[in-house]
Amino acid sequence: MHVLTENAALLSKAFGTTLLLSVAGGALAAVVGLLVGVARISPVPFLQRAGAIYVETVRNTPLTVAFFLIVFVLPQLGLTIPSYVAAAIVALGCYTAAFVSEAVRAGVNTVGRGQAEAARALGLSFLENMRFIIVPQAVRAVVPPLANVWIALVKNTSIAAGFGVLELTASGQRINFLDPAAVVPALLWIAVAYLVITLGSAFGFRRLEHRLAVAR
């Protein structure tokens, strides 16, 4: 226990950083993923192709490559992100957005095509159709896959340890460097911390899914 008490400040800060990366990265992924998902099902061919290229590129590229591009390549192009934490949030958000968009697209496809056609017959635009007809029904189908995407995002925050961000995994590396004998209990605490976030999130998503099912 003395390992945890001696490194309490370090571990607490790392836990907070992991939460920040998860929440901020998840929020960015939700916004970008929704936009990409809508683009993929829009009636505009250019938007469909652009969305498909984005999704396929990200899905077939390691997350580490996204970190390298944002942390090292963007500054060479004059686009400097103020901190490594902010860069990690952008990398996680933009990468996860591809998987969010696929969940959105799959959810939209669960809504009967006839409802969209009826909405168009009534004179609703594409955006009005999405807002009033499609999205309210698709949300129920989107929650379970989004839960999996979110949990994957939480675990992916560990990649930020290799890019100057002091999150949970990086705190274990630092403790190992300072006191190799203390690394095992520290890593056990870190594993528990990840479980607290992921299992807590899974419980929250199940509650949300249940409430949406009851509302239906």
TrEMBL record:
Pfam families: BPD_transp_1 (PF00528). It is found in: Cell membrane. It is a multi-pass membrane protein. GO terms for cellular component: ATP-binding cassette (ABC) transporter complex. CDD domains: TM_PBP2. It comes from the Bacteria. Residues 15-200 form the ABC transmembrane type-1 domain. The chain crosses the membrane at residues 20-39, 60-78, 84-104, 146-166, 186-205. Keywords: Amino-acid transport, Cell membrane, Membrane, Transmembrane, Transmembrane helix, Transport. GO terms for molecular function: transmembrane transporter activity. GO terms for biological process: amino acid transport. The keyword Transmembrane applies. The keyword Acetylation does not apply. Belongs to the binding-protein-dependent transport system permease family. HisMQ subfamily. This is Amino acid ABC transporter permease. It comes from Nocardia wallacei.
